[in-house]
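hi! just following up on the protien thing from before. the input was this:
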Amino acid sequence: MVEPIGQEKPDMENHAKEKLVKRLTLAVTHQCNFSCRYCLQKHEDVSMTKETAMKAIDAFVSGICEGDKAQISFYGGEPLLQKELIKELVRYSSEKILSIPDTRLSFEITTNGLLLEEDFIAFAKKNKIFLALSHDGLAQDPVRPDRGGQMTKEIVDKKLQMLLKTFPETIVMMTVHPEYVDRIAESLKFFREMGVKSVSMVLALGERADWDDAAFEKLKRELLKAEALYEQWNAGNDVFRFIPFDNKIKNYICERDADSVMCHFGCHKLMVDADGKYYPCSHFIGMDGYGIGSLDDGLNEEKLESLQSRRVEAEDCKECELRFRCRHTCACGNHGYTGDMSVVSALQCEYEKLTIRLADRAAALLLNESNPAFVSRMYPN
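and the predicted 3d structure came back as:
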């Protein structure tokens, strides 16, 4: 029998010894073909030029050493509006980085799926591009219309089916709007029936998402249903990854602090905007006071250190027994909810506590020899 999870502090020294993946994110466009109700981006008619993108890649390559792992992410707006540019940049960066001995390179794109076609999926498979699909399940139509106000679920469902044929492990990225929070469990069932094995979920944040007490009560009920489905769908050799639960369980077992794994604020995942300016995270693109240099001027380490110094742990969190399992120091998460990188919202606090409790309860049930696939997933070799 595998021991159930407790609440002891993770061994942060072991995590610090892990080799970090060197990451670059390119905001290839601010444009988008969707008009999501919770989106906080401006979606201006701005895109990155090939010259700016190649200059960013050259700067990135200059920091790659023999044996490094590197990852380049293409970000939007909707990044596939710049599909041909992405193809050029994949070829260019592959030639540059893979010429360095023993390096490994991967790419990452999260797309709304509308522009996915078979040829690009084949290109992605050939070039190790990880494609994630944004899809809000049974809330897709009311929450994620296109720019003309038309519903998108039917066409995106077909794109998801197309994607799963080549990438059966595709992760679906679901954002929960408070008005449609009662559709979480049924959305998980819908994805399961579609053949999806992994669903990530985040709560919509910012001024366009009003999480009142009634919405949070519905969220609690839906997560209880999600826990039951998670336990059912991970029995025996079956597999279904509900990322909020998976991450809480696996990070604990692997002795990893949640924010050290999930938050790449600053140089760990440098964001280059379409105009060549540097930002510490995609959430802060274009915000006054959050620029940390540019391709022309280089990284402003003093400004970055100043921003880092503002990321302090809230006093209320310091004595919490769950602090190493909670994303309470995530800069963009805090800023999105409260406007301050170091102020945790009551919503986020309660959501984290609830997710940890339910994940642990599921783990206590599933971590045994009768569920070998689940045990293998949580205890990687």
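Residues 1-19 have pLDDT under 50 and may be disordered.
The two ends are 18 Å apart (CA to CA).
cheers
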